Amino acid sequence: MHIQWKDEYLVGEHLIDFDHQMLVNVSNELFHNVENGTGHEVIEKTIPCLNDYIDRHFTHEEALFLDSDYPDAEAHIKTHREIEKIFRGIEVAYNKDPHSLDPGEMLDFLNRWLVRHIIKIDREYIPYLEKAARERTDENA
């Protein structure tokens, strides 16, 4: 369940790569806390931290969409809202009753979502960001 960062996760956009690394780090912290039986208080603080990074990352991505001609921006943003809803639900459920969630299932979902998000979903918009960057460079030349 631990996510080992790999260079193949880099998408070439520095801010997004940093966000992805932070999401992996926070996910691994959550995994570590669950695996080691860390107290409820620590896990309870880690989940909102993860949600904050997810929100921040999605805000960064969506701002980049606005500066490019990414044709699937609307669908990508819709997916962001769905993921936010899922993770907010996890936070609410955990805060109500920590035993109501299976930590293994939660971490497995987080792992699958995050790796898929980085490797597949985010790679789809990179060519549009690169094109927009080239066009800005050409305008300034």
Characterization of this structure:
The protein is built from 5 helices and no strands. It is mostly helical. The chain has a single domain (16-140), classed as Up-down Bundle (Four Helix Bundle (Hemerythrin (Met), subunit A)), CATH 1.20.120. Helix 1 (14-35) runs antiparallel to helix 2 (40-66). The protein is elongated.
Outline:
This protein is an all-alpha fold and 141 residues long. It has a single domain, classed as Four Helix Bundle (Hemerythrin (Met), subunit A).
The helix tally amounts to 5
CATH superfamily grouping: Hemerythrin-like
Number of domains: 1
Distance between the termini: 47 Å
Low-confidence stretches: none
Q: Describe the oligomeric state of these chains in a short phrase.
A: single chain
State the CATH topology.
Answer: Four Helix Bundle (Hemerythrin (Met), subunit A)
Radius of gyration computed on alpha carbons: 17 Å
**CATH C-level:** Mainly Alpha
Sketch the topology as an H/E string, one letter per element.
Answer: HHHHH
How many strands?
0
Strand content: under 5%
What is the molecular shape?
elongated
Average residue-wise pLDDT: 87
Q: Largest sheet, described in full?
A: none
Helix content: over 70%
CATH architecture term: Up-down Bundle
Which class of secondary structure composition applies to the elements?
Answer: mainly alpha
